[in-house]
């Protein structure tokens, strides 16, 4: 067994890309298996900053095969834009990419549907989607009759398929938009545009399910790169304020086609605090100066949409839930440096609902809206920690904070990040975050 998975345990944007980038060199393949161009990974290599939303961050490491597996919803224009960008910056190995012929393709109607539907949750609050057509494309996938997969684009029936779906979508969009807003889609233009995309990406298209099964059976080291965060999981997250794929650990096998027996290590990624972008309940949200300070210090603005992220205290109830759900074996705590300078820090250790305290994460969004977080308060630290490279370089209060996170989540902290650069990362030796060892550094 040689499969490792990196999963965000909050609402996305946990800086997973940095950990994936660090782990990539130890792997033969890196796989994206759910979501689409709604994700945003920022990876800093030396002085170079790369922003990717669809290609796996592994494309920055030569010699590694990057795979976009069948569970992804695929925006070909975005993939081509990212490939062109990498090639113009001489990232050698962007050719070493395989895209599943099973991915469902995002078409112009998906963007229009996304814009119209986001205004329509039954309780009036917008989901606040990224507007990348993700939900409508997954809906068509499950609905089957209007779905187009990448493999379909190389068949002689592609033109007929486009005409059939465009006609149906024009009828649908006409009913969703007012007369002045509705602009009919042109099947011939879409066919020409997407045939061009198909030609450009043809060298990368493959049966990645077979490729990955063969690689797993041969004992190749595979890194699965989760997108978004487990609280946005369509089945187990804060529904309906979620994305449309299984973004927790439960999605690895259905998105990639690789069964669980080949996955032996699941690393959960958490920020040292919480953020959420878009609508939906957020029990530990700080709608105050501390929240604004975290937003400014952490540059908490969306990579994809540039929206300001909502910020709050770390929620150990939520993280413990998503860690169990994802089968996490260790966690990495990211952006710890953002908390420097705060007098005290709070961690949510339980929720109070209807006068009762519980550590259970509610299954219904209405209950999650009503819970009151129960906090434990820890002292902060004033030092700048961006130069810390080992555990002993951190102030005692920062180490105590990490130790408490590990205790509350129930798995060890394996790595700590104190800045975006590759070397601003502190490995935590097994067992080191216990009082005695921590104090000796
Ligand atoms: P969608 O995935 O565009 O449909 O958006 C659904 C919800 O997931 C919205 O609240 C988005 O803000 C959120 N979301 C989607 N992708 C990401 C991500 O990569 N990071 C954080 N939030 C995301």
Structure explained in plain terms:
- The structure is a single chain.
- The chain is of the alpha/beta class.
- Strands 9-7-5-2-10-1-11-15-19-20 form a ten-stranded mixed beta sheet, sandwiched between helices. Strands 14, 16, 17 and 18 form a four-stranded mixed beta sheet that branches. Strands 3-4 form a two-stranded antiparallel sheet.
- A hairpin with a 7-residue loop joins strand 19 and strand 20.
- Helix 3 runs parallel beside helix 5.
- It is globular and about 65 Å long.
- The C terminus is likely disordered.
- It binds inosinic acid.
Low-confidence stretches: 435-441
- Main sheet specs: 10 strands, mixed
Structural class: alpha/beta
Which distinct ligands sit in these coordinates?
inosinic acid
Mean pLDDT: 93
Q: Which features does this protein show?
A:
441 residues, alpha/beta, ten-stranded mixed β-sheet, four-stranded mixed β-sheet, 13 helices, 31% helix, globular, disordered C terminus, binds inosinic acid
SSE inventory with pairings:
Elements: E1 3-8, H1 16-24, E2 29-32, E3 41-45, E4 48-52, E5 65-68, E6 73-74, H2 76-88, E7 97-100, E8 104-105, H3 108-117, H4 134-143, H5 158-176, H6 187-201, E9 205-206, H7 208-217, E10 222-229, H8 251-256, E11 263-271, E12 274-276, H9 289-297, E13 310-312, E14 314-315, H10 316-326, E15 330-334, E16 344-353, E17 356-358, H11 365-370, E18 372-379, H12 396-409, E19 413-417, E20 425-427, H13 435-440
Inosinic acid binds next to helix 4 and strand 10.
């Amino acid at each position: 067994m040689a499969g490792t998975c990196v999963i965000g345990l909050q609402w996305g944007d946990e800086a997973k890309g940095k950990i994936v980038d660090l782990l990539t060199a130890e792997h033969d393949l890196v796989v994206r298996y759910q979501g689409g161009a709604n994700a945003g990974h920022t990876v800093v290599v030396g002085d170079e900053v790369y922003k990717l939303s669809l290609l796996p961050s592994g494309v920055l490491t030569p010699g590694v095969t990057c795979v976009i597996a069948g569970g992804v919803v695929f925006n070909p224009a975005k993939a081509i834009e990212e490939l062109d960008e990498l090639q113009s910056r001489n990232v050698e190995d962007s050719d070493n990419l395989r895209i599943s012929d099973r991915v469902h393709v995002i078409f112009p109607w998906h963007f229009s549907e996304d814009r119209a539907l986001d205004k329509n949750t039954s309780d009036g609050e917008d989901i606040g989607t990224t507007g990348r057509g993700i939900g409508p494309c997954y809906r068509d996938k499950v609905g089957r009759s209007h779905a187009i997969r990448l493999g379909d684009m190389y068949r002689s029936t592609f033109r007929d398929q486009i005409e059939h779906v465009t006609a149906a979508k024009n009828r649908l969009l006409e009913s969703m938009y007012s007369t002045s807003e509705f602009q009919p889609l042109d099947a011939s233009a879409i066919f020409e545009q997407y045939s061009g995309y198909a030609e450009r990406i043809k060298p990368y298209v493959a049966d990645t399910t077979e490729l990955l099964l063969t690689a797993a059976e041969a004992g190749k080291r595979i890194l699965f790169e989760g997108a978004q965060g487990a609280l946005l999981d369509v089945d187990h997250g804060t529904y309906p304020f979620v994305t449309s794929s299984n973004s927790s650990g439960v999605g690895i096998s259905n998105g990639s086609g690789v069964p669980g027996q080949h996955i032996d290590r699941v690393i959960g990624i958490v920020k040292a605090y919480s953020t959420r972008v878009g609508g939906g309940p957020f029990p530990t949200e700080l709608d105050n100066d501390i929240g604004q300070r975290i937003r400014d210090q952490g540059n908490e603005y969306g990579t994809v949409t540039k929206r300001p992220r909502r910020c709050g205290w770390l929620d150990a109830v939520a993280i413990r839930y998503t860690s169990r759900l994802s089968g996490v074996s260790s966690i990495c705590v990211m952006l710890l440096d953002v908390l420097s300078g705060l007098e005290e820090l709070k961690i949510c250790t339980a929720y109070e609902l209807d006068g009762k305290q519980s550590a259970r994460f509610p299954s219904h969004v209405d209950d999650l809206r009503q819970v009151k977080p129960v906090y434990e308060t820890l002292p902060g630290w004033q030092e700048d920690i961006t130069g810390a490279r080992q555990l002993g370089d951190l102030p005692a209060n920062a180490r105590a904070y990490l130790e408490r996170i590990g205790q509350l989540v129930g798995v060890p902290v394996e790595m700590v990040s104190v800045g975006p650069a590759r070397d601003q990362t502190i490995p935590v030796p097994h067992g080191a975050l216990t009082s005695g060892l921590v104090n000796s550094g």
